[in-house]
Amino acid sequence: MSASSSPPAKPRLSQRLDGVLLTILGVSLALRVILAIRGGAEYYPDEGRFNAAISAVESLRAGDTDNFFRLIFSTADHLGYKASMTLPAWCLLQWHWNLATMAVLSSGIFSTANIGWIYALARRTGAGRAEARWSALLMAASCSMFYWSRHLMPYDYALFLGLACLYVSLHPAPRWHHSLTAGVLGFCTFVTYNGSWSLVAFILTAHVLRTWPWWRRWRQFLLRSGCALAGLVLPFLGLVYWAAGRQFFLLDSYIGFSNSIFQGDFGDAHRFILEYLWAAEKGLLLVWLGCLAWFVAVGAWRPASGRGRAVLWLSGLLTLVAVFIGFCDVEHKFVVYGRLVRQIVPFACLLGGWVLAHWRVAEARQGRLQAALAAAIVVIGGWNLAQPLRQRWDFHREALQVRDRYLQQPENRDVALNRIVFLNEGYIWPEPLKYNLPPYQVLLSRPHIMQFRALLYEGYNREQREKILATDITMRVVVLDRSP
């Protein structure tokens, strides 16, 4: 074979890796580790699902397999997450790992990996490195993609599986096994977090519709839709059948769970979505809206490479918004929460990356403008991420120390213990407590967790949010004045 006909040399690893992406991922993971170390795990009642995994492992270690299966598979509330968390739970029990480590393993790593998925999705659909970097940077700057990674919740893990499903579904030359794999990943996404069903529905529908016009490619359309449906439905039916054999009636549980999402306001999704994103993202929301407006007004009408993928990202964003508004405002089927709305963020980042990469100005200004935009996004992201990082979750321990030091002072040794009161230290639900106290002296004051406004969009209705915002919920240790 002549030298001219020899195959091209495979690029070296250093040439295939993107240093900018690795920097973004490294910084993002470090921030998530710091966030987990600063506490927050087990603050929410819903984190009890991780505790269910711990109890299940304890039962298994004691030889009680029936209770193990009951704790994991008897109810439909995110059972895939409970099953997946049995391995971290075993590590916690075996080697006494702390909750911060559990948060990194169950959320932080997947939250970071989702940034990598955004880069990979852009590249999968034909984007150059510049566009993929923009998309990853926007995802890394998103606070809604950040603050849950300190908690033992299924949201980041489920999104990881959902983006993997999207990646497989966008194979440039999909065959039957790609459709089947996408369906299986869709099933895994749904059982990990039930609220991801709309994301899975969009991904698999978009995968099938890539055969358009289907009447000219009807064989491919039927094969793709049949394999995707089989991958999605058959594991689910198998799970339901297996569970029924153990007297776990999952189908009834799924139906009951779907009818229980009513904490909040029906008919409010059209306002809720933007309000939540503003509370969580601030300036980044303005960047996304600016990119969206530019694409609709200008970018969609210009001849540009990869415009089809931009339309796909816009379709994903609009489809999820339409689902939320339709089922909340029109059908009154479920209430929208912040953790549902955050599923549109990957599409906003991908669309934003396309716009920022295709927005052209005079060549003399192009480099300076891009550097300024990148710096602005970093500053916005740093500002947003700083608030969760500043939150203090150890108030009770600090409050006990302050109380003990106060009582140990000679002039305070006759102070009764019941005169020292902790105010607003716990989880606020459904609205702040009303204290009717005599005059007091403040010994310690710290911002309350719920003063991070994005957290008020998780099950609170508008009236409850307004009451919390109108109340001083600062956590305090106070000593009451002596009775007259």
Percent of residues in β-strands: under 5%
Query: How many strands, which pairing sense, and closed or not: the largest β-sheet?
Result: 3 strands, antiparallel
Q: pLDDT under 50 segments (min length 5)?
A: 1-6
Shape: globular
What's the count of strands? Answer: 3
Helicity level, as a percent range?
A: 55-70%
Mean pLDDT: 92
Distance between the termini: 104 Å
Q: Helical region count?
A: 21
Structural class: mainly alpha
Question: Helix-strand pattern, N to C?
Answer: HHHHHHHHHHHHHHHHHHHHEEHE
Summarize the structure.
The chain is mainly α. The chain has helices at residues 13-16, 19-37, 48-61, 65-73, 79-84, 86-95, 99-124, 129-141, 155-169, 176-192, 197-209, 218-245, 250-258, 269-281, 283-297, 307-330, 338-341, 345-358, 363-390, 395-408, 462-470, and strands spanning 420-423, 440-446, 475-480.
What does it look like?
By secondary structure, this protein is mostly helical. It is 63% helix and 4% strand. The protein has helices spanning 13-16, 19-37, 48-61, 65-73, 79-84, 86-95, 99-124, 129-141, 155-169, 176-192, 197-209, 218-245, 250-258, 269-281, 283-297, 307-330, 338-341, 345-358, 363-390, 395-408, 462-470, and strands at 420-423, 440-446, 475-480. Strands 1-3-2 form a three-stranded antiparallel sheet, with helices on one face. Helix 3 (48-61) crosses helix 6 (86-95) and helix 11 packs antiparallel against helix 12 (218-245).
